[in-house]
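Problem: given the chain below (396 residues), write out its structure.
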Amino acid sequence: MTTFDRLPARLRALPPVAVDVLVVGVVGMFTGPDAAVNEPEYRQADWLTWLLLAVSLLALLWRRRWPVPVAVVTGAACAGWALYGHIGELLNLPTIVALYTVAVQGDRRRTLWTGLAAALTSGVVALWVGKDVVNPQGLPVLEMLWPLVPLLLGEVVRTRRQLLDEYAARAARAEADREREAARRVRAERVRIARELHDIVAHTVTAMTVQAGVALETFDVRPDMARQAMRQVRDSGKGAVRELRATVTVLREPESEDDRVEPAPGIERLGELVDRFAGGGIELTLREEGASDGVPSVVGLAAYRIVQEALTNVVKHSRARHAAVSVVRQDGTLAVEVIDDGPPSPPPHEGGFGLVGMRERAAAAGGTIDYGPVPGGGFRVRAVLPAGLPAGENGE
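Solution.
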């Protein structure tokens, strides 16, 4: 930062009253000697000269609060010197400071009106005084132009300040937008993690509960079935641990080969999912039509979780004896449907996380979902997700 840059910064750091007193001191230092000495053939300084100087300097102390009245007072004092016959090169310095303040603290309309009034007044005073007290060449024009110089300078400074303020405001808005976007992403990530944990824990525990119930009921009469059910409980627990580990691992950078993330489940693992819920008095069937190759991973994960949530609701909330899962890929869409034959009953609680999670997953994958009771009994969940064209149907 140069010396010229440091000086305004130091002045802005001072209290306004101190700055005003400093301005008055500087103006008085230049204007006082000019008022004290006049051309020999003209009127010399007397009490009126010093009175006008004192009024001009004292008026500058209130230039921030009343800029236009201060400009009028200093302009009247400057005109009084000229009409009184006192000639000086710097006697208009208080008026210059006052006019600059009018422009820098006002607006363009006020500056225009002030400039018009000041120019006309200065021209009239020049004509009234006559050519015998100043340079006769172009006197009215020159005297009308000088009040416009401080006004123009004030306009430039004020416009620059407004631009800097606008740039600062834009930067602040951009920073606020970035912070809001970052907070939104954090909230979205928290919702995604919560949804994953809900799908992994709640659904797996439900499946394990079903298999544990089967094992308890068949422990004495069908030991082989009980052992199969407990093996299913064990496999479900291991699968849940793997999925939890994969979900937690994505929250940090992998530190070793053991930290590699297992691929997210997709429609190719729907068979395993259905087997987890098998038993417990519910007969489950799975129907798949269309190749699953090329289905985007986000769509496959959404389909898997929707089926998982729907089957959990069947086990927990319905008294169905049969449930059917169908996944049909056709014309670039993947239709996922889960329907059961339970007795008529209200749908699962709308405020729960399950239905909300299904809607969020379908929307995140770019699809739609609807659910509700089936006429005659039962409940159906149907989602339509974009799946792209199967391999060999894209024209290649």
